[in-house]
Amino acid sequence: EAGVVQSPRYKIIEKKQPVAFWCNPISGHNTLYWYRQNLGQGPELLIRYENEEAVDDSQLPKDRFSAERLKGVDSTLKIQPAELGDSAVYLCASSLDGAKENIQYFGAGTRLSVL
Amino acid sequence: GDSVTQMEGPVTLSEEAFLTINCTYTATGYPSLFWYVQYPGEGLQLLLKATKADDKGSNKGFEATYRKETTSFHLEKGSVQVSDSAVYFCALRTGTASKLTFGTGTRLQVTL
Fold first, then answer.
1. Which residues contact A46 (CB under 8 A, 6 or more apart)?
2. Residue of A nearest to B4 (CA)
3. Mind listing the pLDDT tens digit for each residue in A30-80?
4. What is the pLDDT of residue B94?
C-alpha cells in the first residue's frame, strides 16, 4: 500500500513568488495534517482536516497561507507571497480517525528554500 | 500549553553502546506519547508509542516507558547499530485525532 505522497520534494523560489505543495494521503484516511518543520526543530501543525473540513487552522498564517482539501482526499497548501522566513520543510500526514490506533503517517516532505 | 523537551544532540556513540535519549513533557489531561524517527532524506516514521501510564512501547530493540510521576518517556536501546543513525523525535498527543506536539529532535550518530 502506498504511503503519504508529497510533491515536489524540493522547491526553490524567490521571495514574493507564490508556491504550492501537494499531498496525497493514504487511501481511506479521513484526517489530513500539514506541518511545518524549521531547521533544527520539530514539526509544528499548520492545519488539520477531517474529510474536507478544516477543523484546526489556528496556527496557519492566513494572510499568506491557504489550504484546501477538495473531495476530502488530496490537499494543497499554498503560500502567496513567500517570504524568506517561510524556508522550511512542509510535511503532510494522514490518519484514520476512529481506528483503534490512530497513528499519523508522514510523507517525505517538501523542502522549500526562499531566496 | 502542551510541550515536549528532549535532550540536545548530537549524540555520538560507538556501535553496540547503550543509548538513552531523555524526553519529558508537559500536558493537560492524559496524553499519548510517541517516538518518531527520521532517517536522512525520509519522512518521519513511528518508532513506538504508549497510551497510558506504565505502558512500555517497544520496537526494533528500542524501548520507552510512560512515567506519569516524572512526566517522562525516555528512549533506550541496549546495543545501537550504525543503521540507527537518525534524528529521533519525542511527541505527545492529547485527544485521539488532534495534533502531535513534538520536541526539537535529537540527532544520533553511531560509528564503527
1. A34, A35, A36, A57, A59, A60, A65, A67, A77, A90
2. A42
3. 999 999 999 989 999 999 999 999 999 989 999 999 999 988 899 999 999
4. 84
CB A87 within 8 A of CB A70: no
CB atoms near residue B91 (< 10 Å): 27
CA distance A24 to B109: 32
* Closest of B39, B23, B22 to residue B82, by C-alpha: B39
Q: Residue A50 and residue B97: Cβ atoms within 8 Å? A: yes
Residue B80: all three cell numbers together: 545501537
Instruction: Specify the pLDDT at position B96.
Output: 61
pLDDT at A110: 97
Beta-carbon separation of B43 and A109 below 8 A: yes
B102 touches chain A (CB under 8 A): yes
The cell numbers describing A81, all together, are 507571497
- Each residue's pLDDT tens digit, B12-39: 999 999 999 999 999 988 899 999 999 9
Measured between CB atoms, does A50 come within 8 Å of chain B?
A: yes
Dist CA A39 CA B27 (whole Å)? 25
Length of chain B: 112
Higher per-residue pLDDT: A97 or B90: B90
Of A42, A50, A109, nearest to B102 by CB-CB distance is A42
